[in-house]
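The material for today's practical consists of a large collection of protein records. There is nothing in a record beyond a sequence line and a structure line. Backbone structure tokens are a discrete shorthand for how the chain folds in space. Nothing more is needed to start thinking about how sequence determines fold. As an example, a complete record with its sequence and its structure tokens follows.
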Amino acid sequence: MDSFQHESTQYLYKRRLDEKLTAKKEFGLSEIYGNIIQSLHETAKEVLGEKHKRQSRKMWWTEEIEGFIAKKNFIRNG
């Protein structure tokens, strides 16, 4: 999202969104709404790219650690 702060990115986003919104002809309110939402998402992906999800940081979490945590909580809570 930091790249959206650049004027060139904002301009490109506005231009592509405008193209998408004017290219489709809808008749009903739900079609118009759906087109707006779809166009916003598509344009954001095109201009800003997709953010890749990081892998879980819990790869180190094992049943042994789960047992230690449960024991610690049992002792702490009495």
In short: Residues 1-51 form one domain. The two ends are 47 Å apart (CA to CA). The chain is about 65% helix and 0% strand.
